[in-house]
């Protein structure tokens, strides 16, 4: 039996939809607002519970997607993300049984700042110990959790670091690069962006589910891996695609930075996941194209969220 914490979030909800249709194993979705999930139609083997009732001992696999949301939500939480992340990580760690395997959705943000090139196995993080207030709380929250997990080497814990993430259900009312792009495609608006170059590795729920499945099937123990696609994508490639396929108009202006820190290149060359048998079948461009096509369809149907 599988349990997902934070199943109404951007990442958690998309993963829930994939797992619900991929196999008949019982799946329980936990959320602070379970009524939102209960309003949807799910297969018979999927149930919905209030997150306050969660206990890890009842599950073979727990996926903690709490706090793995859209950048706007991360910014709104600010330093609260530290307490929220620790509280639900502690809930899993203190209630899991000997049979429970634990997947924590971490982030590429734990690599720190810079991001002028893809990170790799040798990338090191340098902390300004006398100015820790300069570090985004989201980065600290994920880093603290991973440190705790590495000091529990006998626990079957997977820290799965997500870099870019793209799903057809992207919230069009959010304000981050891909959401803005999808909204402009949906509503035929001018896309306003910085002239600065950018590279992203946008994985989706299929890649996320596949990597979790590989770790579980391999019976692997305590480890951290980076999520990646067949090939990352540049901003120029994305905008060329959007202008040619959807007639997007682009305007370049200076814009504010990301709430999780500026990242000109947000991708990883750390391929430890290959040892688990993980091999992505799609590129970032393929994944984003599917998201933009879905957004265009939502626009034709009058969808705003």
Keywords, please?
14 strands, alpha/beta, Rossmann fold, 9 helices, 7-stranded parallel β-sheet, single chain, 36% helix, 3-stranded mixed β-sheet, 305 residues
Please provide a written account of the structure.
41% of the residues are buried. It contains nine helices and 14 strands. It has a single domain, classed as NAD(P)-binding Rossmann-like Domain (Rossmann fold, 3-Layer(aba) Sandwich), CATH 3.40.50.720. It has helices at 10-22, 34-38, 71-77, 80-95, 137-150, 177-187, 205-218, 235-246, 284-301, and strands at residues 2-5, 27-31, 46-50, 61-64, 101-107, 157-162, 164-165, 191-193, 199-200, 202-203, 223-226, 233-234, 250-252, 265-266. The chain starts with a strand and ends with a helix. Helix 6 (177-187) packs across helix 9 and helix 8 (235-246) runs parallel beside helix 9 (284-301).
What's the CATH architecture name?
3-Layer(aba) Sandwich
The secondary-structure element order is EHEHEEHHEHEEHEEEHEEHEEH
How many structural domains are formed by the residues? 1
Helix content: 25-40%
Number of helices: 9
Oligomerization state = single chain
Rg: 19 Å
- The helix-and-strand class reads alpha/beta
Shape descriptor reads: globular
Widest sheet, order of strands: 3-2-1-4-5-6-11
How many E-type strands? 14
* Uncertain regions spanning at least 5 consecutive residues: none
What is the C-level CATH assignment? Alpha Beta
Distance between the termini: 31 Å
Average pLDDT taken over every residue = 92
Can you identify the CATH superfamily? NAD(P)-binding Rossmann-like Domain
Beta percentage is: 15-25%
- What would the CATH topology be? Rossmann fold
Largest sheet: 7 strands, parallel
């Amino acid at each position: 039996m599988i349990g997902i914490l934070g199943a109404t979030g951007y990442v958690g909800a998309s993963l829930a939809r994939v797992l619900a249709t991929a196999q008949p194993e019982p799946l329980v979705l936990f959320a602070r607002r379970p009524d939102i999930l209960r309003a949807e139609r799910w297969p018979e083997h999927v149930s919905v519970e209030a997150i306050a009732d969660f206990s890890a001992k009842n599950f073979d696999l727990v996926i903690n997607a709490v706090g793995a949301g859209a950048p706007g939500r991360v910014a709104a939480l600010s330093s609260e993300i530290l307490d929220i992340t620790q509280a639900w990580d502690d809930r899993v760690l203190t209630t899991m049984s000997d049979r429970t395997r634990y997947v924590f959705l971490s982030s590429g943000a734990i690599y720190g700042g810079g991001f002028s090139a893809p990170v790799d196995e040798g990338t090191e993080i340098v902390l300004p110990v006398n100015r820790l207030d300069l570090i985004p709380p989201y980065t600290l929250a994920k880093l603290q959790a991973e440190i705790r997990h590495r000091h529990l080497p006998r626990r079957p814990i997977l820290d799965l670091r997500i870099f870019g993430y793209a799903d057809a259900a992207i919230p069009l009312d959010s304000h981050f690069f891909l959401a803005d792009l999808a909204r402009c495609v949906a509503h035929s608006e001018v896309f306003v962006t910085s002239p600065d170059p950018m590279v992203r590795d946008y994985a989706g729920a299929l890649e996320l589910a596949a990597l979790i499945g590989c770790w579980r099937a391999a019976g692997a123990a305590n480890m951290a891996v980076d999520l990646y696609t067949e090939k990352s994508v540049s901003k120029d490639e994305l905008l060329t695609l959007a202008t040619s396929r959807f007639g997007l108009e682009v305007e370049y202006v200076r814009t504010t930075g990301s709430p999780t820190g500026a990242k000109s290149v947000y991708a990883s060359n750390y391929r430890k996941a290959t040892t688990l048998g993980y091999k992505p079948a799609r590129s970032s461009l393929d994944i984003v194209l599917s998201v933009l096509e879905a957004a265009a369809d939502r626009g034709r149907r009058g969808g705003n969220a």
